[in-house]
Write a structure and sequence with these properties.
With 146 residues, this protein is of the alpha+beta class. It has one domain (11-141). Helix content is 38%, strand content 18%. It has a 5-stranded antiparallel sheet with strand order 4-3-2-1-5. It is globular and about 40 Å long. The two termini are 14 Å apart. The model has no long low-confidence stretch (mean pLDDT 93).
């Protein structure tokens, strides 16, 4: 699957207000916008022996990251599957009409990240998305198998 901008799946006002409505979106929509950070941490844990890192993409002058993803070498994993990190940046930049200002390597744990960047922790969703994220990660062959 080609890299797709996370903003394509930006949540509506109703999806932001009602966690169940947000939960009922497709997996790609759910993990593109609203739970990308959960997917990234799950990917890192799923491939614990591969040295997968985590990254936060900042655009324009936004205080908080637009998107969070897992990374391995030149590759990035998000709701679009595995794509070159440069392609992920480009599709998001093109969609938002803003340059990627910064890509921060995430070194904190999930709880600390969520608190610092106003993101939900898994237990704060309508249902815990961790198992859903594991199933999603397992659908995509990682680049080291190519």
């Amino acid at each position: 699957m080609a890299a797709t901008a996370s903003g394509v799946f930006r949540r509506t006002a109703l999806e932001r207000a009602d966690q169940r409505v947000s939960w009922e979106r497709t997996d790609q929509a759910f993990f593109s916008s609203g739970a990308c950070h959960v997917l990234a941490w799950t990917c890192r844990d799923f491939y614990a022996d591969k040295g997968i890192g985590l990254a936060a993409m900042y655009m324009g002058d936004f205080e908080h990251p637009l998107h969070v993803y897992a990374r391995w070498g030149a590759w990035a994993f998000d709701a679009s599957g595995w794509n070159l990190e440069s392609e992920l940046h480009q599709v998001n930049s093109d969609f938002e009409g803003l340059p990627v200002r910064e890509v921060e390597t995430i070194t904190s744990d999930l709880r600390e990240f969520c608190e610092a960047h106003v993101h939900r922790q898994p237990h704060q969703y309508w249902a815990d998305p961790t198992e859903r994220a594991r199933a999603y990660v397992s659908r995509y062959d990682p680049p080291w198998l190519s």
